[in-house]
């Protein structure tokens, strides 16, 4: 009950961002006493929110804490589905593990799991993902699309476009996508996306999308073996960024593209994805489990499969591989 009252309180501030809200007005919105409103205001202050109280005008949030708690993300979030249910943890093994459990417990579509730190963060092929505390965005999203299981990989590409658009708008940087799930800035990796499927033989029960973004790391925060290949948004734009604001923008972009996909199919997403792709038109090496394929990247199919034309003119369809430019 308490978390629901706090959610209503933050929604009230979100919907009246430029205004002061009186204790009585907040009590009417939330459905509690003015004393209870005051207690919730004090709890927000203890959690790092700065609120201004003006006699005969009321309360106004003037600063939020530099964490990515559910309260921070919820304040100002304008999505209809994504992020309406938020699970926040300081430290976890992996947000994906929690998302799988919550999905099995019938968590609603759009539920997100956010952590300040992952001890066992991972990417494709169970590679370790470096996820230090208070520096990045470590998040998983639960979706429940009514699509056949073979189309699930398309959600990785949709998410990549959403993250690129959000980073572009938020920082002014020009990120690019390396098929299938890496986002690069100036040739260095800044984001990884991991899509996992829960499904029966003929239907999807849930798709769990893990998003890891290096936001405020400094060069010295990376192990030596990663410094040459990884970067952060802060390194690239030379300033510290508000992670919660970026999360909100990502959720908004992802929701827009997700609804577009459900309504219009993959083709509009395909065109957007190819416009951000770093490899289209370039010679690449695709290292698959059966060997390496060298050739020119032509684009992706309607199913999100990478097309590579080798020197003999044969077009290969790449379903899973490591790509080297």
From TrEMBL:
Q: Which reaction does it catalyse?
A: biotin + L-lysyl-[protein] + ATP = N(6)-biotinyl-L-lysyl-[protein] + AMP + diphosphate + H(+)
Example of a GO MF term:
DNA binding
* EC identifiers of the protein: 6.3.4.15
| Ranges of the DNA-binding region feature | 23-42
Gene Ontology cellular component terms for the protein in this record: cytoplasm
Q: Note one Pfam family from the annotation.
A: HTH_11
Domain (BPL/LPL catalytic): residue spans on this chain: 71-262
InterPro entries for this protein: aa-tRNA-synth_II/BPL/LPL, Bifunct_BirA, Biotin_CoA_COase_ligase, BPL_C, BPL_LPL_catalytic, HTH_11, Transcriptional_repressor_C, WH-like_DNA-bd_sf
The entry's keywords: ATP-binding, Biotin, DNA-binding, Ligase, Nucleotide-binding, Repressor, Transcription, Transcription regulation
Q: Which residues bind biotin?
A: 118, 122-124, 189
- Highest taxon, organism lineage: Bacteria
Task: Look up the record and give one Gene Ontology term from the biological process aspect.
Answer: protein lipoylation
| Record bears the keyword Oxidoreductase | no
User: Which PANTHER family does this one have?
Assistant: BIOTIN PROTEIN LIGASE, BIOTIN--PROTEIN LIGASE
Q: Which family does the record assign?
A: Belongs to the biotin--protein ligase family.
Cite the HAMAP family for this sequence: Bifunct_BirA
Described by its record, this protein's role is as follows: Acts both as a biotin--[acetyl-CoA-carboxylase] ligase and a repressor.
Protein name in the entry: Bifunctional ligase/repressor BirA
Organism this protein belongs to: Cytobacillus dafuensis (Bacillus dafuensis)
Q: Which gene encodes it?
A: birA
């Amino acid at each position: 009950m308490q978390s629901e009252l706090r959610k209503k309180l933050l929604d009230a501030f979100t919907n009246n961002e430029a205004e002061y809200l009186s204790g009585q007005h907040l009590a009417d919105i939330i459905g509690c006493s003015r004393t209870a409103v005051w207690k919730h205001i004090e709890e927000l202050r203890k959690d790092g929110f700065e609120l201004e109280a003006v006699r005969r005008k009321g309360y106004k949030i003037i600063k939020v804490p530099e964490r990515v708690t559910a309260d921070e993300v919820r304040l100002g979030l304008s999505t209809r589905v994504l992020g309406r249910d938020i699970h926040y943890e300081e430290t976890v093994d992996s947000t994906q593990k929690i998302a799988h459990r919550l999905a099995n417990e019938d968590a609603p579509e759009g539920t997100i799991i956010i952590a300040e730190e992952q001890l066992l963060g991972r990417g494709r092929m169970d590679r370790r993902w470096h996820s230090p505390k208070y520096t990045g965005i470590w998040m998983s999203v639960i979706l429940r699309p009514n699509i056949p299981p073979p189309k699930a990989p398309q959600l990785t590409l949709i998410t990549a476009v959403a993250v690129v658009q959000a980073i572009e708008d938020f920082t002014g940087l020009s990120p690019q996508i390396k098929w299938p799930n890496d986002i690069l800035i100036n040739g260095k990796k800044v984001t990884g996306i991991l899509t996992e499927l829960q499904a029966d033989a003929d239907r999807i029960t849930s798709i769990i999308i893990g998003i890891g973004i290096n936001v405020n790391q400094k060069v010295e925060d990376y192990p030596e073996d990663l410094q040459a290949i990884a970067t952060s948004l802060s390194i690239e734009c030379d300033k510290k960024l508000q992670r919660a604001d970026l999360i909100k923008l990502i959720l908004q972009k992802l929701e827009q593209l997700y609804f577009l996909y459900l309504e219009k199919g993959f083709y509009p997403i395909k065109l957007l994805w190819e416009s951000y792709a770093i490899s289209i038109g370039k010679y690449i090496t695709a290292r698959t489990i059966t060997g390496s394929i060298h050739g020119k990247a032509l684009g992706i199919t309607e199913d999100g499969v990478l097309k590579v034309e080798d020197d003999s003119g044969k077009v290969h369809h790449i379903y899973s591989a490591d790509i080297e430019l």
